[in-house]
Amino acid sequence: MNKKRIGVYPGSFDPITNGHLDIIKRATKLFDEVIVLIAYNSLKTNNRFSVKEREEMVKDAIKNLKNVRCESYDGLTINFAKMNNAKFLIRGLRVVSDFDYEWSLAASNEFIDHDIEMVFLMAKKENTFISSSNIIELSSMGVDVSKLVPKKVNEYLIKKNKNSD
Ligand code: ADP
Fold it and tell me: For position 45, what pLDDT does the model report?
């Protein structure tokens, strides 16, 4: 039996931010292995970046971390977790409104699979205002967000803004 404690950190990561990265780094101290999962639904196409682009940005951001890798999956996160012998789902909490959403997500996950444990990490104070959508909005209005996102993401954002000029 696989005794490794594997945690899956699922999300859209559209794009990954320093808030996400902080959760990933802290999770690597709690688990033997962390899988950052770009969870997507191929029927929904309103994403800002393609799965391939998001994966490239995540992989670059985690390249110096040891026990973490990135995967993408079209379907139920719980199924991905099962296939990878992961018993823990990691999520980040910023503000009270996150709690509402995470509460119903946790309840749905428990309904699907009793054995899966959700692990919530509180966002660092300085990261509570960072969200992928906030980053996109600020950057599209010319605000320098380089201190809020990994390097590769900033490069992508600059390219994206140039192309939409
Ligand atoms: P989703 O669409 O599944 O909410 P996100 O990529 O927006 O995907 O977020 C993935 C997880 O990371 C969620 O649990 C979210 O609350 C958490 N998260 C997002 N931004 C931050 C942040 N700045 N600090 C800590 N956790 C965060």
Answer: 74
Question: Angle at Cα 146 formed by Cα 51 and Cα 66, nearest 5°?
Answer: 60
* Closest residue by CA, ligand 1 atom 16: 92
Would you say residue 64 has pLDDT above 70? yes
Domains of the chain as residue ranges with CATH? 6-163 (3.40.50.620)
Amino acid 101: pLDDT: 92
Ligand 1, atom 3, lies closest to the CA of 11
Ligand 1 centre to CA of 20 (Å) is 6
Q: Phi and psi for 27 in degrees, rounded to 5?
A: -65, -30
Catalytic residue annotation? 20, 44, 94, 132
Segment 36-62 mean pLDDT: 92
CB within 8 Å of 61: residues ≥ 6 apart: 16, 21, 150, 152, 153
**Ligand 1 near 7 CB (within 6 A):** no
Tell whether pTM > 0.85.
yes
List the beta strands (DSSP E) in the chain: 6-11, 33-40, 68-74, 88-93, 117-122
